Every structure is written in C-alpha cells, then in structure tokens.
Amino acid sequence: MTINISKHYKKHIKHLDQNTFIYKVKKAFYLLTNQEERLYEVGFSEGFLYAAKLLQKQPIQDSNNKKIIGVVYKNANLKTVNTIVDKVCAKYLVNKYDVFSKSRSRDVVRTRSILYNLLHEEYNVSISSIGRVFGQDHTTVLHSINQKQNKSIYWGSEYSIWQEYAHLKEELLPITT
Prior knowledge:
This protein is about 65% helix and about 0% strand. The chain has about 180 residues and is an all-alpha fold. It is elongated.
C-alpha cells in the first residue's frame, strides 16, 4: 500500500510545483517527522484518488446505494402551503397565527414539525424555502426534520404521531403543487 501511495505522490509532485500555496505547504513539509510525512502522503493520495473518481463523473452514492445527486427541491407554493397549514391546524386545533409566530408551546412546535416534514418529504420543498415561509431559520427546520429521522422528541416510536402523519399524508395527497 505504501509503495502505491509513494508512486502517486511522486507522479503528481511536478504538478504541485506550479501551485504557490501547495509549494509553501511542501516547504513546511520538511519540518515534519517521518510519521507525519507518511500521513501527509496518505492524505494526498486519497484526495487525488477521490478527485479522479469525481472526474470520471460517477454518481456519489450513500450506504444504501441510493443516488444522492438528482433530488430536485423547489420553492414553496404559497397557495399549497396555506391549504396544508389550514388542514393541519384544524386537525390539531392550533391557531394558524401561532404556527407562523415564534411561539414555542408544545402543541405549536409539534404541529410545525409535522408541517415541515410534510412539505419537505411529500412536496419536495427546500429547507430554506420552508424557513422563509414560516419565518424560521433553515437550521430550525432542519432540526425538526432530523428529529423525525432520529425518532426523538415528538417523533418517538411510543407516540401516535406516526399514525397521524400517515393519515395526514393520505388526506393531503390530492393537493398538487
């Protein structure tokens, strides 16, 4: 393995001389110990092989062998969002004003979490677009979506939210974006 790494390193070292930044890094390279030098070569080799793989235009895949590239998210259609918010607020007896406010009461946060997940999963609305519509930061929306994936807080397996969510998806299926 080390012979292979050194071969890649020596093969591409001449191309590095043209880049002043890497030249400065290379200059500092001689101050490193032998172990640190080997780690540097390994890092360079892995980075080079990864870049070569990307240049071959192979789609990046996750652990479940699903294509990550190709998912298209869109901006929120306000008419559709209003319809969905009205139905979900009516089901959970939450005021629509509270859903769009900064309120952090338990029932409002739970309703928002359901809305975020519905819009993101079923209607492919981007996280930043959901945040803009609800007046929230995109990281707040992302946190809510991650709670469902991690089955934490309101999305625990012991809660009835999963059945409610499935029922809502069936009810809202005819709504097009």
